[in-house]
Amino acid sequence: MGIGPIAAIPKALAQAGLTRDDIDVYEINEAFASQFAYCVEQLQISIDKINPNGSSIALTHPLGMTGVRQVVTGLTELRRRNADILCTSMCIGSGMGAAGIFVNEARSH
């Protein structure tokens, strides 16, 4: 349960033509601390880029709305950092996962 991001994030990055290093901020669902630690280890993503404002354990894990909370939190962080790209991912249950890539179009270049 909860390891879907391990498959979902690489697929989303590949479809967008990006690498894990191209992403400025990751919002990865932390349903359980052990699940999150395992996903981060397997994905080999710098912890400095993940959930910079806290995880679902700290911020909330609203049933059916986790993705919305992650996207809003992540896009807000992109604007705060004047950064470009967010990757968000969540587990769905039964080992499934979903991931999305979002671009901060408001960033001044």
From TrEMBL:
<dbReference type="GO" id="GO:0005777">
    <property type="term" value="C:peroxisome"/>
</dbReference>
<dbReference type="InterPro" id="IPR020617">
    <property type="entry name" value="Thiolase_C"/>
</dbReference>
<dbReference type="Pfam" id="PF02803">
    <property type="entry name" value="Thiolase_C"/>
</dbReference>
<protein>
    <recommendedName>
        <fullName>Thiolase C-terminal domain-containing protein</fullName>
    </recommendedName>
</protein>
<dbReference type="InterPro" id="IPR016039">
    <property type="entry name" value="Thiolase-like"/>
</dbReference>
<feature type="domain" description="Thiolase C-terminal">
    <location>
        <begin position="1"/>
        <end position="102"/>
    </location>
</feature>
<dbReference type="GO" id="GO:0006635">
    <property type="term" value="P:fatty acid beta-oxidation"/>
</dbReference>
<dbReference type="GO" id="GO:0003988">
    <property type="term" value="F:acetyl-CoA C-acyltransferase activity"/>
</dbReference>
<dbReference type="GO" id="GO:0010124">
    <property type="term" value="P:phenylacetate catabolic process"/>
</dbReference>
<dbReference type="InterPro" id="IPR050215">
    <property type="entry name" value="Thiolase-like_sf_Thiolase"/>
</dbReference>
